[in-house]
Amino acid sequence: MKITYYGHSCFSVLANEKHLLFDPFITQNELAKDINVDEIKADYIFISHAHYDHILDVERIAKNTGAKVLGNFEIYNWLLKKGIENAHPINPGGKFSFDFGTVKCVIAQHPSSFMDGSYGGIACGFVLTTPDGNFYYSGDTALTFDMQFILKFTKLDFAVFPIGDGLTMGIEEAIEASKLVEVDKILGVHYDTFGFIKMDHQKALDEFKKADLNLFLPKIGDTIEL
């Protein structure tokens, strides 16, 4: 599967010829200054929670592309108020099928609020099953034993975990999360964007290697295949 990294926790996956975009935060990310947000392709956009560093560019990209946008019920209502009619609600425990495959919403241990401080619904992650492969994006989360239940429903090919520590999992917890969901290919996200989540890249790569895991840290704008 082809994955393009757009910085912070924003990435896209090409699955069953559909562009699946996650947590778009680009235009205010100085590290992603070379990304033209208006050139990003999206057939579906998934929002893990309401914090600004995960939803900032969703309105712009959704209106540019006509993508279907999925998020919890509070985010869904927020999208409708923004004039994004092609929105679809999904809460933890829920599953829907689309033309790319299926998406199941799962719990993430993290707060969620909109930029004005209003309640943003429960934070979540997504498990996607497609003809090209299956993967888990945990969203912003701490390590939780709930992750092991994913294996009851889906065999994963790779996972996407935050590894910047401080506000989410760090390196150690992401390694344990990888073991819980039984993946050995991990895309690391949610690091370096702000001063308090700066990360030692080589240390991260070394620690994952010691655990017999393959950590991928593509440059912003790069496309890799997993």
Name the descriptors.
226 residues; 7-stranded mixed sheet; Metal-dependent hydrolase; hydrolase activity; single chain; alpha/beta; Metallo-B-lactamas; Metallo-beta-lactamase, Chain A; 18% helix
**Mean of pLDDT:** 97
How far apart the termini lie comes to: 5 Å
Radius of gyration: 16 Å
- For the largest sheet, list the strands in their spatial order: 6-5-4-3-2-1-14
- Find the CATH superfamily: Ribonuclease Z/Hydroxyacylglutathione hydrolase-like
Give the percentage of residues in beta strands. 25-35%
- Binned, the helix content reads 10-25%
Instruction: Give, in order, the helices and strands.
Output: EEEEHHEHEEEEEEHEHEE
Bulk shape: globular
Alpha plus pi helix count: 5
Main sheet properties: 7 strands, mixed
| CATH level 1 name | Alpha Beta
CATH topology: Metallo-beta-lactamase, Chain A
Report the count of strand segments: 14
As residue ranges, the low-confidence spans are none
How many domains make up the coordinates?
A: 1
Keywords: Hydrolase
GO molecular function: hydrolase activity
Protein name: Metal-dependent hydrolase
InterPro entries: Metallo-B-lactamas, RibonucZ/Hydroxyglut_hydro, UPF0173_UPF0282_UlaG_hydrolase
Description:
This protein has about 230 residues and is an alpha/beta fold. It has a single domain, classed as 4-Layer Sandwich (Metallo-beta-lactamase, Chain A), CATH 3.60.15.10. The chain has five helices and 14 strands. The chain has a seven-stranded mixed β-sheet with strand order 6-5-4-3-2-1-14, with helices on one face. It has a seven-stranded mixed β-sheet with strand order 7-8-9-10-11-12-13, covered by helices on one side. It starts with a strand and ends with a strand.
